[in-house]
Every structure is written in structure tokens, then in C-alpha cells.
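INTERNAL AUDIT FORM
Audit reference: QA-55
Scope: verify that the stored structure record matches its stored sequence.
Auditor: D.O.
Record contents follow.
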Amino acid sequence: MDSSFKIFPIACILSFLSFSCLNPFAPRLDTEPSSQLCTDLTNIENVFCTFRQAYAFKDTTLYSSILSENFVFTFRDYDRGVDVSWGRTDDMHTTYGLFQNVQSLELIWNNIISSSKNDTMQSIIRGFNLTVTFNPSEINRVDGYANLTLARAQATDDWQIVRWRDESNY
């Protein structure tokens, strides 16, 4: 009998043992830098990225990192025909409730419609699509525009959202 034929079963067994240690339900830890990291909030696009990730992960800590202490949210109550506004604390409570009561959120930022800026303030109107999944049979889709004002004390500081006017028809 050829010696290579005797080694073949041993090689097969060793290969099987090495692959059997891989658990497809526990993939390896990804140690490579991700292109999805958006921690540098001195870049406006990273504020939008953080916003998207906060919704995707339902993470109020991440969400709060992009809101100014004097943040104001405004939306149109079409039933009553009035604008409704609230501050950062109420927005955090409302967002926490949203995050707790939905199965998933998918926020897609679309094109910037309008923008004006200087080193410490920027106004942006940007389209968005938001898919809110309460359960597999109750999915709401919201399309609209976010009219945002972002500010920072100095040109080297992180941007934070000071004002958000929701211009969706929801």
C-alpha cells in the first residue's frame, strides 16, 4: 500500500477536527477597523451616521451624544393645525419610548436639499426614509425632510444638533 494513501485518512481527520472548532453561530470578533465607525463628530456626515446607528441599535446613549443641551425638536401636528416643540429631556424620553416599543428601526439619509454653514453653525435640510417595525405585521414607513441646525463652540469641537424640525407628513 502506498504511504500517501495511509496519510490521507489522517489528513482528513485533522482537517475535520480543525473545522469542527468553528461555530457558525459565534463568529470571530471583528478586529479590523470598520468603515461604519463614525466617531469623529467634527465631521457633519458622521453626525448623520451616528444618528442612523443610534436608531439601528436603539441606543439612547449614542443618540444623546449628538444632541446639544439646548436641543429643540419641532413637528407639525396636522390634526390640531399647530407646531409642537419640546426640549432635549422630553426628546430623550420620547426616543427611549420609541426604542423600547419597536422591533427595529431603519433610517436612511437621502440627499441634502439645502445647506448653509460657517465654522460653528450649519443648517441642513436633508431627506430621509424611516422604517419602523413594531412587529412583522405592523410596519410603518415615514418619508420626509429633517431641517437641522447643528452647532459647535469652536471649529475643532464636535457638531451637535441644536434644532430639528421634522418636515414629514406623518
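Auditor finding: record pair retrieved intact. The chain has a mean pLDDT of 87.
Action required: none
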